[in-house]
Every structure is written in structure tokens, then in C-alpha cells.
Amino acid sequence: MALLVTIFMKGVPILLLVYVIIKILSLFRRRWELQALFRAFPGPKPTFLGGNSAELTGDYRGMVKLAEYSVQYRGAFPVWMGPFDAFLMATHPDTAKYILSGSDPKDEMSYSLMRPWIGDGLLLSGGRKWDRNRRLLTPAFHVEILKNYVKIFTASTHILSQKWCAAVEPIEVFHHISLLTLDSMLKCLFGYESNCQTETNRHPYIQGVYEVSDLIVKRIMNPLHHVDWIYYCSDNGRKFKRACNTIHLYSEQIIGSRRQLLQSEKPNSRNVDFLDILLTAKDSEGKGLTNDEIRDEVDTFMFEGHDSTASAISWCLYNLAKHPEHQDRCREEISSVIGNKRDPEWDDLGKMEYTFMCLQESMRLYPPVPNISRLTEKPIALTEGRQIPKGVRVGVSIFALQRHADIWVNPDEYDPSRFSKDITRSSIYYMPFSIGPRNCIGQQFALTQIRIVLAMILRRFHLSLDPDREAEPESTLILRSKNGIYLKIQAT
């Protein structure tokens, strides 16, 4: 017995050493494989330990550096995140169009941190499931459905306006706009009156969505928390798990209640909303979405349409505050179009052309989702003879692409005239909602809300910058400001 114990005690360290050696060799093998795959794509020289992460950070300096590299290394170049992990970064439209023209799935490594919340909805699903569910969800964004949401958007914006009328000090607008979009989303998704813009004691579902959004951003910024077992042992990890459970519980209750309502109510007794369409959609075989699929799509739409829309609105307000001459011109146009009416209406939105140009230019400079990624399911041939191999993670920097010096004159300047209807430009040069089969299914929903919110705010308030707190763009899941977006608000 003693002999067996002695052999065991001596053998364990040897086995551990062998395991460590095998693990190290496998990591170096992965490094050599990636180097071979990316041989045709020159790029900035990485350090061994840090890769390119020290200079290609998520802050504004790193994003601008990425835009500079987009000219130096045409098309795409490798970005190393350490000694053993790398992906291709595409920064030119001619390359991005090949990557985004197919239905390759999202890169799971980039988006996996959200899966516990949004499950296998449109953002993360692939293959037949994605294709089927995309077709089933498309009617939810039909123009006749969007028209029903106009009154919801105006009502939510009136709540914001009432709060801002009492403002004396500069306001951090992203927080306020985020609550506005969350309020609108809940009304459009569920027909639920949340009062989240005014109540401090929020409904558990509202608090859960707010906490999860914040905790995902914090997790992204902490590399150690990318390891699941470390994260879920942390205080933030436990909070995240509880918040996800709360969201899913209430989502399931709401879905169950709506199923019962659809069975008992009279047809055409109310406007159809997003949840109604999910519950009644049928594929070619007569099969609908399961409860889990509906929950995943609801949570996905909440994630994709909440803070990203808030980002687009907030950065547009920032740019108009920074350029008062454009702000004044927008205000004149809005007043002319709306006239004596209390609120903008559906037919007014297309008439506010200059305001829309200002929004487009803002989303060019500050795209709400600055980076997207794919995992190639097959090789992608590029025009210059190079090929992106199968099984490669590929990022597309929308931020760098929309500031590419080969395409845009003075790319860092805010110039709404770039989007004059007299100028013809390929859609691949401007893609804040992505392009191709996996583009943002809710982009018209978002644009409708953004145009209404901008019109109502600019009609009622004059905006100016807070000189003591300049915004600092930062790329997380969406484009935020590291120190907030503070504006002075004055009633007109």
C-alpha cells in the first residue's frame, strides 16, 4: 500500500508536467496555424504577449488607429489578441461586402457573453433555424405595423421632454435616451406600460434588462471575466445570472398571458404588436415558433433595439450641439414640416430631409454598432486574388470603414451634405445597420423612432456642449462615451 502511495505521489507531478507541455505545444500549434492562414494578409506587427491589443483598444484612440491602418493595409489585416489568438479585421467596403454578402453566422467568441440573456435568437442563430426565423419575423417590421408605433414613440418622448424642461445643470443624455428607448420597446414588444422613465422603483423585468446591459459591458472590459467559471464565481457574475433568470421568468409569463388573450379576444380589437406576430407566425409546414424561440427573439430584439438606438440618438444630439448651424437648420425644417400640430406624424418623417442627412452623417462618424464579426463557413474569394480561409473569425470595423480616407473627403469632419439626395454613393460605403442577408432586421423600426425623437427634441430644446465634459467615444457592444454625453438643455 505504501509503495502504491509513493508511486502515485511521484507520478502525479509527472502527469501534470506532461499535461502542461501538451497544452503549451497545442497553443503554439494554433499560433503557427493562424500565421499560415494569414500569410497573405500583412498587418501591424504584434508583440508576442500582448499582440496588437495595446494600440487597437476600444477607446477613441484605438478606433482612429484602426482607421489609419485601414489605408495602410488595404482590405483586411490580422489583429492578434495575444500570443495564440488572432482574427482578420476588414476595414474596406470592397472587402466587407464579400464577408457580409453571405449568411455566415456571427462569431460565437465575440457574442457568446450575451447568449445567457438572448439565447439562440436571430443575432446568434445560424443555418436553417436562422433562415426560417428571419422569414417568420420579417412581417413584424412591415410599414403598416411601424405606423402603429408612432404614437408610442411620441408619448415616450413627451415624458422625456417634461423631465428636461426642469433641467438646470447639464444632462447626461445617454442615460435619459436609453430609458426612453427601453420605455418604447416595452410598449411595442408587449404593450406594457413600464413607467421606467419616471419611477425609481422599477419593475423587476425593467431592472433586469438594465442590469444585464450594464453587466455585459463590464464583463467585456475585464478579460478574466471572459472565463465562465471565474465570472460566475464573482459578484457581478452572480448578479448577471439572477438578472437573466428574472428577465426570462417575466418574458415567459408575458408570452403565456398573451397566448391566452389571443385565444379569447375578438379579432381586430386592438393594434397588432411584435409579440402578436411572433405568436401567430407559421412556416411553410404550418409550424410556429416555440415558447423558447419566442423568448429568445423578444430578448434579442430588446438587446439590439434598446441601447443601439439610444446610441444613435445621443451621438446625433451631440453632433448637433457641437455644430449649432446644422442644429438651427434642422429646427427650422422640423417646425416648417410639423407646423401647428402637437406631434410629428408618419407622413412628416420623409419630409424632414435635412434632419435625416444630419442623422446619417452622425451615424457615419459614430456608428451605434462600431464592429461586427462573422465566422466563415467556407472560403471567401476577394477581388485582388486573396482568399479568406474557412473557419476564420473575421471582424468588420464599421467605424473605420465609414471613415476610410480613400472614400470620404475629410473623413473626420461632420458634413451632412455628403448625404444630399443629389449625391449617388454605393451602399457598401455606408452601413450602420450592416448589409447583406444578416443586416439589422429592425432598422426601419429604429429609424422611425430616431426621427421622431430628434424632431420632438429639436423642436422644443436648444442644445449646446458642456465644455467641462467632452465626450470620449468608446467601443463596447455599442458606441458609448466613456465619461457620458453631457449637454446643456435650454427650452426654445
Automatic annotation (TrEMBL):
Keywords, sorted A to Z: Heme, Iron, Membrane, Metal-binding, Monooxygenase, Oxidoreductase, Transmembrane, Transmembrane helix
Cofactor(s) in the UniProt record: heme
InterPro entries associated with the record: Cyt_P450, Cyt_P450_CS, Cyt_P450_E_grp-I, Cyt_P450_sf, Cytochrome_P450_Monoox
Transmembrane domains' residue ranges: 6-28
GO molecular function (one): monooxygenase activity
The keyword Nuclease is annotated on this UniProt entry: no
Binding site for heme: C440
Family, as annotated: Belongs to the cytochrome P450 family.
PANTHER family linked: CYTOCHROME P450 FAMILY 4 (PTHR24291), CYTOCHROME P450, FAMILY 4, SUBFAMILY B, POLYPEPTIDE 7 (PTHR24291:SF201)
Protein name, as recorded: Cytochrome P450
Organism: Sinanodonta woodiana
